[in-house]
Amino acid sequence: MDKNRDELLKKIKDEILDLKESPLYEERINSKSFPVIGEGNHFAEIMLIGEAPGKNEAKTGRPFCGQSGKILDELLKGISMDRKDVYITNIVKDRPPSNRDPNSEEISIYSPFLDRQINIIQPKIIATLGRYSMKYILDKFWVESSSPISEVHGKIFEGEAEYGTIKIIPLYHPAVALYNRKNLNTMIDDFKILRKYRHI
Ligand code: URA
User: Fold this and answer.
1) Which of 18, 93, 133, 198 has CA 20 to 30 A from 112's CA?
2) 57 in ligand 1 pocket by Cβ < 6 Å?
3) What is the average per-residue pLDDT within 121-134?
4) Atom from ligand 1 closest to the CA of residue 36
5) What is the model's pLDDT at position 41?
6) Does the C-beta of 63 come closer than 6 Å to ligand 1?
7) Helices (H), the chain
8) Are 106 and 23 in contact (CB under 8 A)?
9) Using CA atoms, how far apart are residues 41 and 112, in angstroms rounded to an integer?
């Protein structure tokens, strides 16, 4: 599988580009936007999973390239990493109108693509950014947790992926740091946990 990672990821991109059955497809075409598939190292040990693209992301096709992205870059820099060390993606690959939260129909249409990305890249650590990716990943790997993100952020869970055991670390969404500086300090601490478990 290793030699084919680029090709397999490109196939996902092509399928999403043509995903006419998505309720977000028409809006993407009308607003001359792009889906956001993901970017970074196709051999990354760490995969970061956000929620859905915002306006800047949909305009450029790149994940986390607006205000939240600046925070994410700072947090990565704080643990001596940058975007090329990790793979960054979202559960929902097209922008929900007016930046509303993704709904369950959107999550079920786009999550099979995320599942494939996980199996292609085979990260040892999945760090979720925000409530929606946290819930999806904890459910997917049968990790018992109905606890709110305020209780589980920065904790380490284990899950069995098709390719081996993985660690799952729920993190707050970088946007929370935009509202309150105190949240940023919590995120800085949580990212230190990520650093402890990385092997690159
Ligand atoms: N918020 C997300 O969850 N993902 C992005 O790509 C940008 C903002």
Assistant:
1) 198
2) yes
3) 97
4) 6
5) 97
6) yes
7) 5-17, 25-30, 55-60, 67-78, 104-121, 131-140, 149-152, 176-179, 181-197
8) yes
9) 20
